[in-house]
Specification:
Layout lengths: L2 E7 L16 E2 L2 E2 H10 L5 E6 L3 H7 L6 E4 L6 H8 L8 E6 L7 H11 L4 E7 L8 E4 L5 E5 L6 H4 L3 E10 H8 L16 H7 L5 E3 L13 H21 L2 E3 L5 E9 L3 E3 L3 E9 L4 E2 L4 E7 L4 E2 L4 E7 L4 E2 L4 E2 L3 E3 L4 E4 L2 E3 L2 E2 L4 E4 L2 E3 L1 E3 L4 E2 L4 E3 L9 E3 L4 E2 L4 E3 L2 E3 L4 E2 L4 E2 L8 E2 L21
Parallel strand pairs: 1-4, 1-6, 4-5, 7-11, 12-14, 13-15, 14-16, 15-17, 16-18, 17-19, 18-20, 19-21, 19-22, 20-23, 21-24, 22-25, 23-26, 24-27, 25-28, 26-29, 28-31, 29-32, 30-33, 31-34, 32-35, 33-36, 35-37
Antiparallel strand pairs: 2-3, 6-10, 7-10, 8-9
Bound molecules: uridine-diphosphate-N-acetylglucosamine and calcium ion.
Cofactor: Mg(2+)
Subcellular location: Cytoplasm
Subunit structure: Homotrimer.
Length: 456
């Protein structure tokens, strides 16, 4: 049985008051539409067709790498019209699953249950009971509790408005039957739109027993129309991630103040302080402590590592037992071995640092290969860029770099070498020796400090 997924995303999203098409607004760092696409992809459908309208080119280019089929709906004449436009794309499918680009948190389990119902019928709806059903299409049932139709809010009678079971819009349907029913809908209604929901009454007319399932939570079927709803679902999503982390053995100082924009894997007894942001793929091994205001992207943090407050770490590997920060920036392609200390106002880029080395204060280490047990003094700069090219600095095991030194790359500091404080090193420094470049100190004893002349 071939499955085609249809994602409706042609609406303008006026209430977002944005230049960005609504379905491209990010939730947990990812466009709303991508959430839906990824959930759909888990069913390995034959094809995922996105019905687009407003901001189409931008939507297409943003999701260019997701192997989607695109169908333009030039005029938005209603949800039924949108699906009619997409019918030619669905010709080879047996079943169709209809989703919405602005309903991002629908879960795979719920869709699984919905499609299971399609085995028993040609049409299955996802419905939910709401305390306040206002604005939604109402599910009308007969005295035997069978669904007979969906009535839109604007077309509903007083009695129908009192129904609190609503249409989420999400449905699974036989492709052949869908085509037949859509051929029979019109726009004789309050909004003069072609309603997809009109196929329900037609199905019942044809003797189909319309099935229904409920989602496991209301949030799954919430649509986003404005930024307040977007923020609400963002917090809901983040709270779920926080609950997962705690269940996995991590402690959070405040589960309402952590953001996961990607995938975070935690070991046991991890502690995460307030306002940490994790992006992409991040792994925190057992016993890791993350200080407040950390931003960590695509990184592996080894066992027992302590990240002190206000650190930014990206595309890096931090070895077990290391201590980073406060206020450190670890940039892409950095690999720190075990027990490395990186202190305040230190920036490290594209460098490897060996076991037990210390870079504790105010330094820049870029394009460098640092050995084990190295001590890099405060204010040391690897001068890796000559204005055109980047060059490498190599610092051998047990080397000691005096404070405020500049290592002008390409340059090699030998094993066990000592560089005197304040040196500008332009040639290789020999192993196990002292190398320094420093103007001789001078004392002028006859010198007097100038004094201000009193005003006349
Ligand atoms: C629709 C349902 C309603 C349901 C509600 C759930 C219909 C007629 N009504 O109402 O029963 O309770 O969703 O949120 O289906 N879209 C297009 N092309 C169009 C029109 C809409 O792509 O021509 C897309 C929109 O981008 C949106 C979705 O379809 O993502 C729903 O459209 P909207 O106009 O918001 O439908 P509602 O009136 O809310
Ligand atoms: Ca809507």
């Amino acid at each position: 049985m071939k499955l085609g997924v249809l994602i409706l995303a042609a609406g303008q999203g006026t209430r977002m008051r944005s230049r960005l098409p609504k379905v491209l607004h990010p939730l947990a760092g990812k466009p709303l539409l991508s959430h839906v696409v990824e959930t759909a992809q888990a069913f390995s459908p034959d094809r995922i067709t996105v019905i687009y309208g407003h901001g189409g080119e931008q939507v297409k280019s943003t999701l260019a790498d997701q192997h989607l089929d695109w169908c333009e709906q030039k005029e938005q004449l209603g949800t039924g019209h949108a699906v009619i436009e997409a019918l030619p794309h669905l010709k080879s499918d047996d079943r169709v699953l209809i989703l919405y680009g602005d309903v991002p948190l629908i879960s795979g389990e719920t869709l699984e249950a919905l499609m299971a119902r399609l085995g028993k019928s040609d049409l299955a709806l996802l419905t939910v009971k709401l305390e306040n059903p206002s604005g939604y299409g109402r599910i009308v049932r007969d005295s035997d509790h069978h669904i007979t139709s969906i009535v839109e809010q604007k077309d509903a009678s007083e009695a129908e408005l009192a129904i609190n079971e609503i249409n989420t819009g999400i449905m699974a349907v036989s492709r052949a039957r869908l085509e037949g029913w859509l051929a029979r809908i019109d726009n004789n209604n309050a909004q003069q739109e072609y309603y997809l929901t009109d196929i329900i009454a037609l199905a019942v007319e044809d003797g189909v027993e319309v099935q229904s399932v409920h989602p496991s939570s209301e949030e799954e079927v919430m649509g986003i129309n404005d930024r307040a709803q977007l923020a609400f679902l963002e917090r809901y999503y983040q709270r779920q991630r926080a609950d997962e982390l705690m269940a996995a053995g991590a402690s959070l100082a405040d589960p309402a103040r952590v953001d996961i924009r990607g995938k975070l894997v935690v070991g046991q007894d991890v502690f995460i302080d307030c306002n940490a942001i994790f992006e992409g793929q991040v792994e925190l091994a057992d016993g890791v402590k993350i200080g407040p205001n950390a931003v960590i992207k695509n990184a592996r943090i080894g066992e027992g590592v302590e990240i002190l407050p206000n650190c930014v770490i990206e595309d890096a590997e931090i070895g077990a037992g290391s201590r980073i920060g406060p206020f450190a920036r670890v940039r892409p392609e950095t690999k720190l071995a075990e027990k490395v200390n990186v202190g305040n106002f230190v920036e490290i880029k594209k460098s490897t640092v060996g076991r037990g080395s210390k870079i504790n204060h105010l330094s820049y280490v870029g394009d460098s290969l640092v050995g084990h047990s190295v001590n890099i003094g405060a204010g040391t700069i690897t001068c890796n860029y000559d204005g055109a090219n980047k060059h490498q600095t190599v610092i051998g095991d047990n080397a000691f770099i005096g404070s405020d030194s500049q290592l002008v790359a390409p340059v090699i500091i030998g094993d066990g070498a000592t560089v005197g404080a304040g040196s500008t090193i332009t040639r290789d420094a020999a192993p196990n020796s002292l190398t320094l470049s420093r103007a001789k100190q001078l004392t002028v004893s006859s010198w007097h400090r100038p004094v201000k002349q009193p005003k006349k």
